[in-house]
Specification:
By secondary structure, this protein is of the alpha/beta class. It contains eight helices and eight strands; from the N terminus they run αββααβααβαβαβββα. The chain has a domain of 116 residues: 3-Layer(aba) Sandwich (Rossmann fold). A hairpin with a 6-residue loop joins β7 and β8. The protein is globular and about 55 Å long.
Length: 248
């Protein structure tokens, strides 16, 4: 769904005036007009009480298991320089997909007391994450404190899909933090220039951040960005080039 269409629908529902002549031609005009502007605050993540593959000590790559996942969580817990347990630290393919998110969230809760990321692969899985957090912290505490973050990617350019928006709605409704993060390969999903990519990143993050405030005013939201580039000769993604570091 286009970011502009999402914002327009919620703008109408929230009672704001919408000039149909501006939609969807001018997608960013007034994107945060009329929204309550809470002062910037530092998000304090509460501590809780106790990639697809892995490589073994021989350097052999293989599919990851739930045991690998648990070991990575334990390693992050033991590292004083890591302040966050992460989310899908690897993909435990030995657990069925329909319940995999439950085992992953449970592992974060059981094997670490550091904050962690919630599931965003379906709105129902986001609801499961919040429900599990409430078992740990209690309903009232979760509704009034941030205990989870979640990564919400824009499907650049200028699109948020149903899965991401569904998860964003769940977490924002329960006062949990969303990191709104455009996922961009410059030259394919945004202009090839740094300035053009930054402009698009800002527009997409503003759309997502505004959406969280329409769901629940004051809901915590973070500005995120992921940017890389592609080879203009082959179209292959490139990593480690200077342009993405300038964007970030």
């Amino acid at each position: 769904m286009h970011a502009a269409k999402v914002e327009r629908q919620l703008a109408i529902r929230s009672g704001r005036e919408v000039d149909d002549r501006l939609w969807p031609a001018d997608r960013t005009r007034g994107i945060d007009d009329g929204l309550e502007q809470p002062p910037p605050v530092a998000i304090h993540l509460e501590r809780h009480l106790p990639s697809v593959g892995s490589a073994d000590l021989d350097g052999v790559r293989r599919y990851a298991t739930i045991e690998d996942f648990q070991n990575f969580v334990k390693l992050a817990y033991m590292a004083p320089s890591i302040h966050h347990s992460g989310g899908t630290v690897c993909e435990p393919v030995d657990v069925p997909v329909n319940k995999r998110h439950l085992d992953m969230v449970y592992s974060h809760i059981k094997y670490s007391d550091k904050p962690f990321m919630g599931s965003v692969t379906a709105p129902e899985r986001a609801e499961d994450t919040v429900a599990m957090a409430k078992i740990v912290f209690g309903d009232d505490f979760v509704e009034n404190n941030t205990v989870l973050t979640s990564l919400i990617n824009a499907n650049s350019p200028m699109v948020f899909d149903e899965t991401m928006l569904g998860a964003l709605k769940v977490y924002s409704r329960h006062n949990q933090a969303c990191i709104v993060t455009p996922f961009i390969l410059a030259g394919a999903m945004s202009p090839v220039t740094v300035a053009g990519t930054l402009t698009q990143v800002l527009a997409e993050v503003l759309a997502g951040a505004s959406f969280t405030q329409l769901i629940r005013p004051g809901a915590p939201v973070l500005f995120g960005t992921f940017a890389s580039s592609i080879s203009m000769q082959s179209g292959a993604p490139t990593f480690g080039t200077p342009e993405p570091s300038l964007v970030s």
